[in-house]
């Protein structure tokens, strides 16, 4: 089992279960928000999944009834973007199937983590959203690439521009979610799905996954290249500082448009 900095209240655990690696973001007091330590823990867990031949599938979930609320805005205001998660969000960086098991909500970077997985199992009462525009940022971890791939473009546009979330039920109807689970049962249902994969031939699973991802992600490089200067413009702006500050101070932000 991997565990990082439990004394500081920041941990990621990775527990093998009969060929399935259950990876848990375990920072429930902060709604499993991502900071540098969580990022390091996730990278270590993915490295374990990639390197151990006994592991066939990964399941990513969150502790405390919440998948992940996204980037830790207080940490961002002090230290900027957490390092290291880029490869995972950008190309999945796993050599094996990865399933998101979502309870509560997957927001901002949390939704982008779910989208970086190959499949999503969600509790019926879960919610999914990209609220970055409310704090002067945008979903720079692949959310604006993958949402239009998995949802109708007009729905993805509404989510990005209004920052309003959608329900798991709507996400399932539109194809964002593979399976709906009863509340508290998302992890169990995701492991059931993972076990169905482990019963199939490893080389067949690998080849099929690679081909599906290749078709889905044909224009990724152009997207990332187009996004790079926008990250510099938006994330270094005055509004990018004001949004997290207002969020921390629990007040409406005063946007400057610069």
- What is the number of beta strands? 9
Q: What kind of sheet is the major sheet?
A: 6 strands, mixed
Specify the CATH homologous superfamily.
2-enoyl-CoA Hydratase, Chain A, domain 1
Order of strands, main sheet, comes to: 1-2-3-4-6-9
Q: Give the proportion of residues in helices.
A: 40-55%
N-to-C order of helices and strands: EEHEHHEEHEEHHEHEHHHH
Mind telling me the C-alpha Rg?
A: 18 Å
CATH architecture: Alpha-Beta Complex
Describe this structure in words.
- With 258 residues, the protein is an alpha/beta fold.
- 46% of the residues lie in helices and 15% in strands.
- Strand 1 and strand 2 form a beta hairpin.
- Helix 2 (73-79) packs across helix 11 (238-249) and helix 5 (143-150) packs antiparallel against helix 6 (153-162).
- The model is unreliable at 4-9 (pLDDT under 50).
How would you describe this structure in keywords?
six-stranded mixed sheet; about 260 residues; 2-enoyl-CoA Hydratase, Chain A, domain 1; about 45% helix; single chain; alpha/beta; 11 helices
Short description:
This protein has 258 residues and is of the alpha/beta class. It contains eleven helices and nine strands.
Layout of strands and helices, then pairs:
Elements: E1 12-17, E2 20-25, H1 36-51, E3 57-62, H2 73-79, H3 86-91, E4 98-102, E5 105-107, H4 109-116, E6 119-123, E7 127-129, H5 143-150, H6 153-162, E8 166-167, H7 168-174, E9 179-181, H8 186-198, H9 202-216, H10 220-235, H11 238-249
Parallel strand pairs: 2-3, 3-4, 4-6, 5-7, 6-9
Antiparallel strand pairs: 1-2, 7-8
Helix pairs in contact: 2-11, 5-6
